[in-house]
User: What shape does this take?
Amino acid sequence: MKRLGILLSGRGSNFEAIADQVTGGGIEAEIAVVIANRPSAQGLETARQRGLNAVLLPSLGMERVAYDHRLIDELNRNSVDLVCLAGFTRLLSADFVRAFPQRVLNIHPSLLPAFPGLDAQRQALEHGVKFSGCTVHFVDEMLDAGPIVEQAVVPVLDGDTVETLSARILAQEHRIYSDALRLVLSGAYRIEGRRVVRTAG
Ligand code: GRF
Assistant: This one.
């Protein structure tokens, strides 16, 4: 059974969607550890309530590479095979990416490469796009830039606010993160340059 490590900073709804799939048998893996970098992260409390191994590693004031080595140690201590960033709002160093090559996934609330970085839903709304969505991608050393595993498209409606658009995107995030995890856990893909190509399994 493959072992997942979840990294989060806040609400943790993507983590919960993944945890529901694991509990319900929709994802064949176990959540080995949930790590939060902020004491106030709601996701940390949720993980505790679910009886998961929930670890707080505060990042405030810590130098990036030093912090990332603490993360790497905690993930390795829990024999994590695959790392899922689920609203983890800290940029990871090259050391971290190299410690888990092509084994870190992230979810981003836009159709990358459009609107990387913070406030992607607000960026989409302000740009005036008619469609936006979300992306699950492998993490490389650039921000929101690695090979794309899954995407989902949602319409942007005339009456949308950041909140309504975010909610429409979030529902799709919860669906495609699990879809992406199933694919990656199955091993039925290969990475060709930037492209994640499905194989016969
Ligand atoms: C999501 O919109 C995700 O795409 C982004 O941060 C948000 C996290 O939400 N990276 P949650 O903590 O999973 O509820």
